[in-house]
Specification:
The chain is of the alpha/beta class and about 375 residues long. The chain is about 45% helix and about 15% strand. The protein contains 14 helices and 10 strands.
């Protein structure tokens, strides 16, 4: 099994996270999709929690701040984060680089924050029970010891990425009173696991949302728009032309969820058919992501993975560098995610060299599975 397993349908792996912090952003997308679809199909069909397991490294990455902040702002109450708080990183104890007050951090985002012993199943159960009716997102800090049960390596960085070794594993078995051979799962655990799996399988069958082919709708709309344009032949910027198409697409394709990283007016990603998604109100189809390019793209991956929604988000082409890890994962997972990158000319003037995209187009074109289109 790969250290970072990849998303593939019907494997039980919800997403390819790989780079740390991506899973947190994906989870925000899952929770957001659940709220949007609940408004459309009702609580009887769509009503679930989204659980995300995150470690110290996930919370160090900047994307975690962007995603957690937006989740708190939107009041995504069905989002629950379990923080494996073991205070160990690859280089050693996390206090080499981190002295954050996590409770204050999460509370400032508008999250609940509960602290428990991560090795005490009763505390885990009670904490999960407590957050079921929360009105805001919840984080459960589970204080744990890495390599728990290992007499010589628990609580150290050597338990993070290296095998314990045959002799140490024998000591762990003795310490934890575990008498089963490798890869042998006790029957009572296996039976319970399969029972839960069967229940989940039935649930997913009952909650299937029908997907439809939209290629014919899109082709028809583009044909009509071309014909309309030929009649007038007016001078038009490509981003304005993009907005006209978006206008027509959003009328016919409710699966489209638009958005922009604080550049709606510049990207022209917002149309007259859009209604804004707001805190506690998910009846809309357009999201103001704020100045959070990376989180926007990670969240869009979650929206696409969750069901049949097709997210698109806008920013300037130069800022694709802020989005790159998420874009690469979109391509790796072959998800229906659309990036609208405007202001793509190397001749951009007033903002100076920082906003002039030089190598960005070549960089995007080099990503496998990523289709790059540039009107010119």
């Amino acid at each position: 099994c790969a250290g970072h397993p990849e998303y593939e349908k019907n494997t039980g792996i919800e997403t390819t996270t790989g780079p740390l912090g991506q899973g947190i952003a994906n989870a925000v997308g899952f929770a957001l999709a659940e709220e949007i679809l609940k408004e459309r199909f009702g609580k009887k069909i769509i009503n679930h929690k989204t659980y995300v397991l995150a470690g110290d490294g996930c919370l160090m990455e900047g994307i975690s701040h962007e995603a957690l902040s937006l989740a708190g702002h939107l009041k995504l109450k069905n989002l629950i984060l379990l923080f494996d708080n073991n205070s160990i990183s690859i280089d050693g104890p996390t206090n080499l680089a981190v002295s954050d007050d996590f409770k204050k951090r999460f509370n400032s985002y508008g999250w609940n924050y509960i602290e428990i012993d991560g090795h005490n199943e009763k505390q885990i159960f009670n904490a999960l029970k407590k957050v079921q009716k929360s009105k805001i997102p919840s984080a459960i800090s589970c204080k744990t010891t890495i390599g728990y049960g290992s007499p010589n390596k628990s609580g150290t960085e050597s338990a993070h990425g290296s095998p314990l070794g045959k002799d140490e594993v024998a000591l762990v078995r003795k310490k934890l009173k575990w008498n089963h051979e490798p890869f042998v799962i006790p029957k009572n655990i296996m039976n319970e696991w399969r029972r839960i799996g069967e229940k989940a399988s039935l649930t997913s069958q009952n909650k299937k949302i029908k997907t439809k082919s939209i290629s014919k709708i899109v082709s028809k709309i583009i044909k009509e728009e071309k014909q309309n344009y030929i009649k007038s032949m007016e001078t038009m910027a490509t981003r304005k032309s993009s907005q006209k198409i978006i206008n027509s697409l959003t009328k016919k394709i409710p699966e489209l969820i638009g958005g922009s990283a604080d550049l709606s007016g510049s990207n022209n990603t917002k149309s007259e058919n859009h209604k804004i998604i707001k805190p506690g109100n998910f009846k809309g189809n357009y999201l103001h992501y704020g100045v959070r390019e990376h989180a926007m793209c990670g969240i869009m991956n979650g929206l696409a993975l969750h069901s049949n929604l097709i997210p698109y988000g806008g920013t300037f082409l130069i800022f694709s560098d802020y989005c790159k890890p998420s874009i690469r994962l979109s391509a790796l997972m072959k998800q229906r995610v659309i990036y609208v990158m405007s202001h793509d000319s190397i001749g951009l003037g007033e903002d100076g060299p920082t906003h002039q995209p030089i190598e960005q187009l070549t960089s995007l074109r080099s990503i496998p599975n990523l289709n790059v289109f540039r009107p010119s």
